[in-house]
Amino acid sequence: MTNNETAPQTEEKGYEVISFEQVVGFNYTLPDEDEPRTIEREITFVWEESIEKFKEEHGSDKPYKVNSFKREREQKAFIERLEDLTDDAIEEVQEEIANKMKFGFEFSGQLHNDD
Length: 115
Description:
This protein is an alpha+beta fold. The protein has helices at about 5-15, 50-60, 70-105, and strands spanning about 15-30, 35-45, 65-70. Helix content is about 45%, strand content about 25%. The protein has a three-stranded antiparallel β-sheet.
C-alpha cells in the first residue's frame, strides 16, 4: 500500500487501545516462615499488537476490550491512566507486604496518636 492508502484508514479507525484484565500474584515470604504467601490483584494490561496476535497468545475465550479514540492525545491519556492504576496497585501491594514484614501479620490500625 502507498502512504495515500494508509492515511484514510487511520483517520477512519482513529486510535485504538486493546486492553485485558488479568489477576497477578505478588509473592513474598515472611521472615520467620518458610511457606511463601501471595497477594493477588486484578490488573488491566494494554495489548500493543493486533487482536489476532492476542487470540493466538491467550486463546479466543480470553475477554478483551477495544477502546477507540479520535485523537492520539486521548489514546495516550487512556494508556497513562491504566499505567497509573497499575502503579497504584503495585504500591498498595508493596505497602501491604511491608506492613506484614514489619509486624508479622496484617496491620491496619493507627501507629501513633496525633492528639
